[in-house]
Automatic annotation (TrEMBL):
It is a multi-pass membrane protein. The chain crosses the membrane at residues 21-39, 51-72, 93-114, 126-144, 156-175, 195-216, 237-265, 285-311, 323-340, 346-371, 383-403. It is found in: Membrane. Pfam families: Nramp (PF01566). Keywords: Membrane, Transmembrane, Transmembrane helix. InterPro entries: NRAMP_fam (IPR001046). Its main location: membrane. The keyword Transmembrane applies. This is NRAMP family divalent metal transporter.
Length: 414
């Protein structure tokens, strides 16, 4: 009896490609969250709250996981970007979501360009305008080369690992009270309004605005979607949040060691840079420069790519010009930075408030897609009830964040 011929080992090659695509999406999400604002917020709250901030970090990680598990699951199974899903659920909602994302991404990208300038200044004393322009040129070049997607994945992975490694070194040399931080992550000494404010602020900074969709949209572009990839998509989304959480924990410990040593960093012109200088002297200041530049340039890439991904599906011509649109987005951000020196304070506040509104609107639409009885947008996939439940719980918290954002918008017009 003759044996049937064996099939070639194609599945193994497919798994390698799958891992590569998901890895790139994971680091795009993580590095988009780790920007200049991330570093500044973590430093400020650590100096204000001390070891108690560990509790806020733990809660934020759990909420972030709940949000991203649902966002990635819906977009990953459907293989459709958020704005297109929104238009299918409520005609016109996708266009509104795209406008909010692009505006918020543009304003924050000006801040990201400023962050690259701040990093190169701390690293080598480069003039701020020259540093910002050179960094923007590097980012533009990335999107104009062939196979930009693969190059972007490799660069983001490398810079992400570099940031974590350098911050780990700073955390070690600052000699933080790790035991106290571990205890207070679950048993905080106090739970006041300041701790709650810190928690909701860093949640918005990690999964708010364009950051929410960065990895999921890269996932769609890589083609690693569909019901057959659900488990891998879920693991990758959680891992991306954990990567972000690890970076925040290491930065928190680095600053905590300095603060518990008696240094008053909040009075310094640049508190994060002062924290690194206190931890490791001039070497620490240079380390901060590298970390800040890496965080800012990856956020430039993430903000630009994700913002443009919200408009390219509206027209085939826009999709074909995607690389040039991203390059133009970065160029406009840079011009605004060069003329104004930084994003106007009012625009930054407004963009931050709008990002607070985007989170519950976008998450609410994704949860509605998941809960639809017809499951037409998910090709018959039965969405897990437990996942939908934790998504709704996270959504309720984002509604609270949005209410505060509306208060911020109202204050702007008074």
């Amino acid at each position: 009896m003759s044996e049937s011929p064996q099939a070639p080992p194609r599945p193994r090659a497919k798994r390698v490609a799958l891992s590569s695509g998901l890895l790139g999406a994971m680091f795009l999400m993580a590095t988009s969250a780790i920007g200049p604002g991330f570093i500044t917020q973590t430093t400020t709250f650590t100096a204000q709250l001390g070891a108690t901030f560990a509790f806020a970090i733990l809660v934020s990680i759990l909420v972030d996981i709940a949000v991203q598990l649902n966002i990635w699951r819906v977009i990953g199974v459907s293989g459709t970007r958020a704005q297109d899903l929104a238009n299918k659920v409520l005609p016109g909602a996708g266009y509104l979501l795209a406008v909010l994302i692009v505006f918020g991404g543009l304003v924050f990208n000006v801040g990201n360009i400023a962050g690259t300038a701040l990093g190169l200044d701390a690293l080598a004393g480069v003039d701020a305008r020259i540093a910002g322009a050179v960094s923007a040129a590097l980012a533009i070049a990335l999107f104009l080369v062939k196979r930009a997607g693969a190059a972007m994945d490799r660069i983001l992975i490398g810079l992400g690992l570099l940031m974590i490694g350098l911050t780990l070194y700073a955390a070690i040399v600052s000699d933080p009270p790790v035991g106290d931080a571990l205890v207070q992550s679950v048993l905080p000494e106090r739970l006041g309004s300041d701790v709650f404010l810190a928690t909701v602020t860093i949640i918005g900074g990690t999964v708010g605005g364009y950051i929410t969709y960065a990895g999921a949209h890269r996932l769609v572009e890589s083609g690693q979607t569909g019901r057959e990839n659900v488990d891998a998509v879920a693991r990758t989304s959680v891992t991306g949040i954990i990567v972000t959480g690890v970076m925040r924990v290491l930065l928190f410990l680095a600053v905590l060691g300095v603060v518990t040593g008696g240094a008053a960093i909040l009075d310094a012109p640049n508190p994060p840079a002062e924290a690194f200088r206190q931890a490791a002297g001039e070497v620490g200041l240079r380390l901060f420069g590298v970390i800040m530049w890496a965080a800012a340039i990856t956020s430039v890439i993430g903000a630009s790519y994700t913002s443009i991904s919200f408009v390219t599906t509206f027209s085939p011509r826009l999709d074909r010009a995607k690389g040039w649109l991203v390059a133009g987005f970065i160029a406009v951000s840079t011009v605004i930075y060069l003329f104004l020196g930084q994003a106007p304070a009012t625009l930054l506040v407004l963009a931050g408030a709008l990002n607070g509104l985007i989170l519950p609107v976008g998450l609410g639409i994704m949860l509605w897609v998941a809960a639809r009885r017809s499951h037409d947008l998910l090709s018959g996939y039965r969405y897990p009830k437990w996942l939908l439940g934790i998504g709704v719980a996270a959504w309720l918290l984002t509604v609270y964040i949005a209410a505060n954002a509306l208060t911020g918008i109202a204050d702007l017009w008074q």
